[in-house]
Amino acid sequence: MELAMSKINEDQAKPLAPLFLTTRSDQPDEEDQYHHDRTKYVHSQTKLILCCGFIASLTMLIAVTFIVLSLTVFHLHSPNITVDSISFNQRFDFVNGKVNTNQNTTVSVEISLHNPNPAMFKVKNVNVSFYHGESVVVGESIRRSETIPAKGTVKMNLTAEIVTTKLPASLPGLMEDLNGRGVDLKSSVEVKGIVKKMKIFKKTVHLQTDCYMKMTTNNFLTPTFQCF
């Protein structure tokens, strides 16, 4: 009994071991977690900036390429129109020195349309008008729907009827003019259409050329003319 009590007293007399607080190695502290999140955020922002920069550069490259192509390879030019000949199919009929208003005359105009583009030129209509003086229309003809291939040339023959009843009342002296200084007539050829490439590049075309003719008795059927 005494031995047991002695053992208990001895144990109670021993000092207690100091208590230390230790951290677990598998749980990172707050500072490490902050640096980890910060690094992840910076990497995400960098990737976003690089992605936006790539998209912006690609968009700019496409835009510049489109502009260069539209000004060079796909640049559309206006077609060219040339009047090759003007000829009357029959002479005016005169009765007592005046034009016979019961009989009209016809005139043919041959033109050439050249398409310099690498795309088809679709002609909507071609109109030829004849004037005596500045504003009196004495003949007109309209031709529609014509297609000119790329780099191609098409010839057209336009026929108009000169309506003698539309000639000015001052033309009783027409016969004397034909035998003398000549009679002035003006023809105007107008072409409307469109040139289209790949349904993206297109050009609306409006061509016009005016020809001035001098008719005399000697050259009535094939008058001399000059176009502008």
Would you report the number of β strands? 10
Task: Return Rg in Å.
Answer: 47 Å
Number of helices: 3
- How would a textbook summarize the main sheet? 8 strands, antiparallel
What is the CATH homology-level superfamily of one domain? Answer: Immunoglobulins
Strand order of the largest sheet: 1-4-7-6-5-8-9-10
Global outline: rod-shaped
Range of helix content: 25-40%
Just name the CATH architecture of one domain. Answer: Sandwich
Contiguous uncertain segments of 5+ residues: none
The top-level CATH class of one domain is Mainly Beta
> What do we call the CATH topology of one domain?
Immunoglobulin-like
Structural class estimated from helices and strands: alpha+beta
Our measurement of the CA-to-CA distance between the termini, rounded to an integer number of angstroms, reads 144 Å
Proportion of residues in β-strands: 35-45%
Rounded average pLDDT? 79
